[in-house]
Here is the input.
Amino acid sequence: MEFRAGNREGGLKVKRFVAALGLVGVLLPATAGADIFEKVGTFDGQFLKIAVGARAAGMGGAFVGVADDASSLFWNAAGIARIDPDKSEVSFNHASWPAELSFDQIGYVFHVKSIPGAFGVHARALTMDPMVETTAFQPDPLVGTGRTFDAGMLAAGFTYARFFTDKFSAGVTANLVHEGLAEFSQQTFAFDVGTLYDVGTLGMRIGMAISNIGSQIQFIDREARIPAMFRVGTSATVFDGAEHKMIGAFEFSHPPDNAERLNVGAEYSFRKFVYLRGGYNINYDAEGIAGGVGFHFPVSVVGKADLDYAYTDMLELGGSHRFSLRFLF
Here is the structure.
């Protein structure tokens, strides 16, 4: 990366871009409804809100200002620019979701030597096991009509991010969103944008992201919008010693179909091997306290891996278990 010292004009452009993105983030959700904040059940594509990665979930979802691994493909596209430019990273994520649903995600971040910045591809899906088809005349849940059906939702995308100064990175993602129920299906496109800024004090970062910027999606005979999400947050190093390190994070989010939310979390590491995490999802309908553990270990001469687990209390819906495996090579 090449930077020009004292380039005031470039710094002003970065500040203007951050301010403009923040303004868009404030105004965009308002397009869903100017007079009320809570419009639960009026937006499609709710699976797009499901958090990716056990590390982030263990920190209570306060990750937009951390965003330094492959899960940044979901949280903040600008974060993939923070991955070692001489390395690639692949991540596998699984979450058990209420109602016997499964949520899975895979992400891959790589670099092209002739092009500055980082590239990423990802896919995530919410799926269910086949269910017996029943009717008013054949209501037996074990036999039904003799046929089965299933339903699923998928989002796949491509991300590009890069540094614009030695402290500021930005990224953008283009997504294809697919929904299916039995023989019915529908697709649409959506975009994510994100920024990440290193303050320069106490390892502090400020992150901002807008996800799911798209048009309406029509399923069968009804149209609905997908939920554009605005997130802004910060992270900082609480202490950093030879064997111990802790970072804390805070995040604010504005969904278009519910009230504003807060996320707080922390991550403690011992000898960069064992990680303990905790956090809380504030003002959520069905998510509360969260916690998790992780292990970082070598798998080859140049490769390293992270194995993470997280649990999120989902109140009346029970709980969600998440597992993640990441490889840096």
